[in-house]
User: Which sequence fits this backbone?
């Protein structure tokens, strides 16, 4: 069976999975998350390069993976060149949608909400230089928001005051915010509630799903399978596993498996 591998540090990549599954519902998916090293936004660069390259190539050696999606901005803005060197299949990365934001913004003042690592990356600075040189860019890096998204999928509601505090540097300053972390797309509606209608909130998930579908069609790699049989692998035991399994099950996965190759 031919599978698409979606990889993240946690459950954030599910925002990418949902769009891919909407577009190509019969494609078999393996979702793998490195919760042993979560949160990636707090990891050293060399640790991330070793872990992501090691795990993704081990999964590709073990399973018949036809395409990899690094559903993590923190990893993609760093490891894509290393990974593409290692693998002969397409590797799709998820990086902040700076270019569309610069085009959409009327005030030419945009925001980037990402992990602390992503806002510091040379890759991100280059994106801004290349595509948002005419804009003022306010960047906020928040690990707390990543944790809040993880908790939400385990049944803990997002605290509005805390969310407001994280978003406060953007308020009244920007008219478009880029969600540069896949976790944040899972709470996009809550972020929109706080920032209001005068500020657009955008992410990369739909365009990534289009890219993935395009690749698979071009390469004739579409694999067909019954629904509700996607697989999910973790690198460590999972907090609130029963609750999270319910969530995974509802969106088409079997129960989470610990994978020894991690
Ligand atoms: N979901 C990830 C991203 O898009 C990383 C979150 C984390 O582990 O810090 O950046």
Assistant:
């Amino acid at each position: 069976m031919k599978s698409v591998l979606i990889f993240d540090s946690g459950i954030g990549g599910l925002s990418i999975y949902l769009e891919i599954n909407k577009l190509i519902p019969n494609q078999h998916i393996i979702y793998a998350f490195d919760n042993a090293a979560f949160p990636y936004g707090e990891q050293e660069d060399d640790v991330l390069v070793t872990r992501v390259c090691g795990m993704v190539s081990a999964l590709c050696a073990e399973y018949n993976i036809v395409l990899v999606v690094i559903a993590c901005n923190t990893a993609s803005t760093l490891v894509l060149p290393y990974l593409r060197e290692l693998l002969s299949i397409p590797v799709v990365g998820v990086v902040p949608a700076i270019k569309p934001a610069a085009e959409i913004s009327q005030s030419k003042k945009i925001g980037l909400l990402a992990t602390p690592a992503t806002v510091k990356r040379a890759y991100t600075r280059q994106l801004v230089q290349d595509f948002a040189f005419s804009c003022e860019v306010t960047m906020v890096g928040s690990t707390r928001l990543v944790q809040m998204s993880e908790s939400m999928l385990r049944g803990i509601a997002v605290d509005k005051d805390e969310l407001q505090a994280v978003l406060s540097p953007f308020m009244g300053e920007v008219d478009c915010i880029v969600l540069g972390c896949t976790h944040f797309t899972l709470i996009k509606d809550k972020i929109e509630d706080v920032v209001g209608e005068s500020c657009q909130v955008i992410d990369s998930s739909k365009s990534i799903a289009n890219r993935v579908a395009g690749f698979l069609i071009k390469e004739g790699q579409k694999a067909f399978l019954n629904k509700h049989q996607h697989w999910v692998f973790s690198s460590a035991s999972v907090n609130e596993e029963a609750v999270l399994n319910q969530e995974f099950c509802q969106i088409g996965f079997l129960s989470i498996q610990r994978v020894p190759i991690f």
